[in-house]
Amino acid sequence: MRLELVPRADPGARARALAPLFALLAAVLIGGVIVALMGRSPLAAFHVYFVQPLTQGWALQEIAVKATPLLIIAIGLSFCYRANLWNIGAEGQFIIGALVGSILPLVTHGTGAGAWVVPAAIVMGIVGGMLFALIPAGLRVAFGVSEILTSLMLVYVAELTLDYLVRGPWRDPKGFNFPQTVSFDATLPYLVDGGRLHAGILLAPLVAVAAWFVLKHTLFGFGVRVAGEAPKAARFAGFRPNRLVLSAFAISGGLAGLAGILEVLGQIGQLKPGISPGYGFTAITVAFLGRLSPVGMIFGALVMALTVIGGENAQIALKLPLDLTRVFQGVLLMCVLAADALVTYEVRFVSEARA
Amino acid sequence: MKRLDGDRTGAPLIGLRGIVKRFGSMVANNRIDLDIRAGEIHALLGENGAGKSTLVKIIDGLLQPTEGMILWQGREVVLNSPEDAAALGIGMVSQHFSLFDNLTVAENIAVALPPNESLAGLDARIAAIGARYGLALEPSRPVWSLTAGERQRIEIVRALLREPRLLILDEPTSVLTPQEAERLFVTLKALAASGCALLYITHRLEEVRQLCDKATVLRLGRVVGSCSPREESVQRLAALMVGSEIEDIRPVAAHTPGPVRMQLTGLNLPPADPHGVALRDLSLGLRAGEILGIAGVAGNGQSELFAALSGERVVADAGAVVIDGVPVGRHGIDRRRRCNAAFVPEERNGHGAVPRMTLSENVVLSRHATGGVVQRGLVDLEAAKAVADEIVTAFDVRRGRNDPLACILSGGNLQKFVVGREILREPGVLVVNQPTWGVDAGASLTIRQALIGLAARGAAVLVISQDLDEIFAISDRIVVIHGGELSEPVSARTATREAIGLLMASGKGQPHAA
Description:
By secondary structure, chain A is mostly helical. Chain A is built from 14 helices and two strands. The chains are: A mainly alpha, B alpha/beta.
């Protein structure tokens, strides 16, 4: 007896659109079982995770703040994933973007430099993430190295580089030996008094619209889609595979870098270890939850941000560990991928004597 | 092999009664009755999509019929898997080989044996079967070094080791040279003489007349006729198959070709993968107004040649490929298209077209570099849609709803679309690989006629095809590709099939150093 996946002739647009919703439902049910096994009420947990944050003003703001980096990174990743390139290292590109973008605020600290520092820092952040993403892309193009491994391993390089800088050369001399830089003068303005909504949040929907336009209406976006659907057809069309690898990674890394520097300038105001609670990895789930479409990913980012806030809530209200949130995010990704597979393929049990 | 003379008089070896197979709303097989007797070579004829493969899969246990029953020597049987079928003595040699290139002949045969069968003396058994049926094989040779004909012999020996009483052969000559096919027929006749029944699937009518005792013709899932092929003319068999008398291609009046529009000079290309074919020192002049046919057995460098001509792969020497006087050897496919060349690859699904994209998006695929559908980096889908409509009308593409995904179209209709997309551009040079592979007779006729028309308007057309009938039907000159080398061109009017067949088997007539 073995399992066989047989491609369906025509899965239908509706099944494709509904698959992520079913995946979300399945993940919530599995999450409920896990909570029950931990001896808490699944219903209470559901309320704390998914309902309570939506009823509180501060939590809604917090969702927007958390959804911003998730969405920007996921949109970048979708360019890679649509072209069948597996950039797993957005976390590293996020950190390097934050780090390179922080150079200007650091060197101009205390000099009273003007308003140009913030936009210049953002540009440097984008370039930093881009260049860092071009390392795995370049290795793939030049030597055929799997981008999955290199992009993932470079995450550790980025994390440890940040760690070294904030403990060594970039440490705030008046910071009581905490591993962190000075608090920057140059930061993004807040949108509401007393809130945490920073101006960077406005960029996220703009990025989504731009990505939609590029994929839908430009020849470049067309090339990305063709490369993912049928690599031989892409060669037939004259889209150069190497150029495509480099540009998809550049976009992906650039946007991850943008998310990184926005997070530092808008939210944290300084560099320190742990500037990302795993945004670069969570964004992978966001990308697939949103079916790699810009509109879908907006919802995906909001849902994942909700689970993050809900997870913090649950820690306080139900004494559930934060790791549970990570488990739930993992379960959700598996459910999304499984739902995708079930929409595209029909599962058959085949009895056979031998493989 | 057991003698089955007793069965010749009584019930047929296998009988199908009212077999129906539905896939959703599509009826692939509709109330099919079929009897095959021991020792009989029975042809199953039909166009692509007539339901032959479905019926064969039912007999081989891969598919289960929706209705109807299967009788084996008069008793009803249920075949739930190929193992069930093999247990009865039903063997199958499929069209596409399932062989491991890096293993030897004997290893490839061993992996297909039942799990509890001893491997001792396997080489001797292979040799014994080979001697009996004329299936010469060296057990220790690695498969990648074998020709298509030799590979097919492995598949047949595999099947024969299980002592089948019914052997199904699916389009066995599609990859063989005429000479290899002759050898296969000798083997098959010997098999039939020993009492084995053969079900021979094909759409090549000459073979059926030469080889088969009986023929059953399928069309649109139904049996439309059953006859003794030796007593029928090819025209009548063909008419049964396609449902009407086939129109012949209208030949163009004899004409003198114009100047050279595409010139190859000393073109070399290393293989793209370890088992690929290297192109060696190709030189050829393709003239305005002519169709040049490249004949050859599959896997002799046809796909490499297409890649080198189209610019999907570039070569270091710019002058190796010249289009209308412009050296383009180092130019990619887009720049060659801008030199007014057009290309149609062999595989329409995933190479010439993207299955999960609409027809208008598939217009953009090959037209974006030559103007009209892309402006300043932006895709003009409305313009592409207009082009798609134009192709659909000019080439009679049946597409159902407006602008569907390419994968919704049938093979013949998609091929008409892919070929039409290039021909409507009125290219000066057209390179087509397998223009009518797996396409029904009607679509084949449309496509071949369009190629002839394009050449008559002054374009140079190069057709790579494994279908010798096609080559002879439309070419002005014929070149054979063998082992990555090209033969001298010969005129299609004077060349004989035998001479071309010899070139296909052995290149330039000299023994070929591998």
